[in-house]
Amino acid sequence: MSHDRLARIRQLNRARFKRHTGIYPETFTHMELVLDERERSKRKPGRPAALHIGKQLLLTLEFWREYRTFAHLGHDWNIHETTVQRTVERVETALIQSGAFRLPGRTSLTQEQNVFQILAVDAAETRCERVGRSQRVSAARRNDIP
Prior knowledge:
- By secondary structure, this protein is mainly alpha-helical.
- Helices cover about 60% and strands about 0% of the residues.
- The protein has eight helices and no strands.
- The longest helix is centred in the middle third of the chain and has 18 residues.
- It is elongated.
């Protein structure tokens, strides 16, 4: 199932791709390029990974999107859960170190000019009509009469 998963995901239209992975296809391609660049910059590549870069990224996105256990993801992808854990950690580290996918920090949000909108709501108080005490008592007395 995992051997054709990436190909099936890539064939989805833009909206369905985002719904499945949580990101747009352009962002996926950009993340793939970052991971590929990281792989090529290694001095000692070592043992080849169980999954190629696109599948590693898709596995990580599935973990982030669905937050399933490593054991369940490993079962779906036919790899061991520790391999899933190492893959997710490796992809997260590479994406963080690239700096291309960071959200703006607190300082950039405070430096922007605040724009306030005012919404006026007419909330006049209206007296609620409730059954008075005398009406409740008389209804109770009427029920007692045989």
